[in-house]
Amino acid sequence: MTIPGTDADSDTGLLAAVRAGDTAAYGTLYERHHTAARKFAFGLVNRPADVDDLVAETFVKVFAALRTGRGPLIAFRAYLHTTMRHLWYQRARMDRRLEFTDDLTRYDPGEPFTDPALDRLERTFAAAAFRQLPERWRDVLWQTEIEGSTPAELAPRMGLTPNAVAVLAHRAREGLRSNYLQQHVATADHPECRWAAERLGGQVRGRLAPRDAHRMGNHLTWCSDCRDRLAEIREVDSFRNAPYRQRHHAETSG
Question: What is the residue extent of each domain of the chain?
Answer without folding.
Answer: 7-97, 117-183, 188-242
